[in-house]
Structures are given as C-alpha cells and as structure tokens.
Protein: GntR family transcriptional regulator
Amino acid sequence: MFELDVRSRKPIYEQLQDKIRDLIVFGALQVDEQLPSVRTLSSQLTVNPNTIQKAYRELERQGYIYSVQGKGSFVAPPEHHPQEASREKLRTELLRLMTEAVFLGWTKREIDDLYHDAVKRQERGMPHD
Structure:
C-alpha cells in the first residue's frame, strides 16, 4: 500500500495518517472501501498494532474513515470530512505559508497558478509529493 520512513522525525502514526489521507483525497481509496485490518497492516509494515490503531482512530475523529463494529474501517463519504477543526487548522497553515510566500516576493499570479496546479493534481488523482 505504501512505505513509511523509519528515519523520519515525524511519528509513524502521523506518517500513516498522512499516507491514508492522501490515498483518500486523491481517489486511490474510494468511499466505503475497506481499509486493511489493524493486524494485517501491522504485519505488512512491521509496526506495532497500537500505532496503526492510533492512526485509524485519529482519521476517524477527523472524519476521513468510519468503523463498523466487527467489520473494520472504511473510507467515509466526502461530506463527513474534513471536520471544521481540520479545515481551520489547514486554513491557519495555508495563511502562514502564503504570508511567507508574499514576503519572499511571490505574486498573486504565481499563487493563483499554484492553486490551479493543485486543483488539476486532485482531479487527476496525483499526490502532492
């Protein structure tokens, strides 16, 4: 499914969250598609099951996935994600980055072009990496 960087300073559960979120946002995982079980993903990635569970729990809290008792975790419909708190966190980060870009001399045109590139990537299912 994907690889994690064990040398990264970013915690494994956050890397896992980011990877799954990207797969959902870019359409590689479809609505109501089942995610691998905690046990399966844990053995595939050789990661502690508690780490996988923590990532799944956070993604569920953010509205990207939902769980069905005894069945597993599934991709949530778009109207369930992102929650308002996630949107506000993203807005704050975008504002910080755009302020820095303006400070470094980026023009409105360059920022608009970047936005349009992001829309095209999302439509084509291309991740940001």
